[in-house]
Each structure stands twice: as structure tokens, then as C-alpha cells.
């Protein structure tokens, strides 16, 4: 039962972190790097933590009929290590309330192409006229 609760919590956390990174935590031009770093740290964390806990349980195991059996002492040490790691990572979990996304929350990539697009929009703002369809009739609601 405990494994089900832990598994559900991990699933919810792992699925929500990329969404938080994309929408709130970093500048839109940095979302790719932030998601990559999130994935890398998650992979390193799971690899290192499983190796450390495996080492602790193996070193505190009791031999019973030639088979190594983990002891409660090993599990206590494992939970203490997990608690310390959880408390140590707490400051890193703080996300900014809102990121700077530009006007009305619009996400834009910061690249030369978007800079050129902004310049073109600025230049075209001075033009006024009518939009005609192929038959030469004005198109409704076109500016």
C-alpha cells in the first residue's frame, strides 16, 4: 500500500515539474535548458539514491542460512538518509511566483527571427488600407 502512495506521488511530481518550468519558473528562452537540467538531475538523483540505499542495506544485512536479509537497522539508516536529502533539497524547490513572459503572458522565443518579426510588425503598423479577395471585393474584418 505504501508503494502505491509513493509511486503516485512520484508520478504526480515528475509530470508536473516540466509544466511548472515551462509556465512559471524560467524565462521562455530558457525552457529547453531548464527541462534538460530537470531531466538530468532527476536521472542522477534516482541513480545515486538507489545506489546509496542499496549499499546501506547490503552493509547492514544479516546472514540467514547463507542469504543476506536486510535488517530494520538498515532501513532506519536509509530513511534517515532520505529525510536528510529531502530537507537539504528544500531550498531548491522554491519557484518564483511569476516569470517575466512579456505582454499578456505571451510566450516568445528570443531569437533573431522573433526580433525581425517585431521590427516588421512595427514598420507595418503605419500602413493602412483594404484587403481584397481574388475577385477584388473587400474582405470583411481584415485590417
What does this protein structure show overall?
It is a single chain. With 143 residues, the chain is mainly α. The protein has a domain at 2-97. It contains four helices and two strands, in the order ααββαα. The chain has helices at 2-25, 31-59, 72-88, 112-124, and strands spanning 62-64, 67-69. It has a two-stranded antiparallel sheet with strand order 1-2. A hairpin with a 2-residue loop joins strand 1 and strand 2 (67-69). The longest helix has 29 residues, at 31-59. The protein is rod-shaped, with a radius of gyration of 27 Å. The termini are far apart. Mean pLDDT is 78; it is low at 97-105.
Strand and helix map with partners:
Layout: H1 2-25, H2 31-59, E1 62-64, E2 67-69, H3 72-88, H4 112-124
Antiparallel strand pairs: 1-2
Helix pairs in contact: 1-2, 2-3
Amino acid at each position: 500500500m505504501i508503494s502505491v502512495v509513493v509511486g503516485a506521488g512520484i508520478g504526480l511530481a515528475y509530470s508536473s515539474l516540466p509544466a511548472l518550468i515551462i509556465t512559471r519558473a524560467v524565462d521562455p528562452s530558457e525552457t529547453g535548458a531548464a527541462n534538460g537540467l530537470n531531466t538530468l538531475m532527476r536521472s542522477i538523483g534516482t541513480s545515486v539514491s538507489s545506489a546509496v540505499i542499496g549499499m546501506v542495506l547490503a552493509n547492514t544485512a544479516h546472514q540467514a542460512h547463507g542469504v543476506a536479509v536486510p535488517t530494520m537497522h538498515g532501513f532506519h539508516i536509509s530513511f534517515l538518509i532520505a529525510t536528510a536529502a529531502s530537507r537539504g533539497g528544500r531550498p531548491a524547490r522554491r519557484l518564483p511566483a511569476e516569470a517575466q513572459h512579456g505582454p499578456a503572458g505571451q510566450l516568445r522565443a528570443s531569437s533573431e527571427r522573433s526580433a525581425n518579426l517585431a521590427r516588421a510588425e512595427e514598420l507595418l503598423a503605419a500602413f493602412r488600407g483594404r484587403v481584397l479577395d481574388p475577385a477584388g471585393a473587400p474582405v470583411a474584418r481584415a485590417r
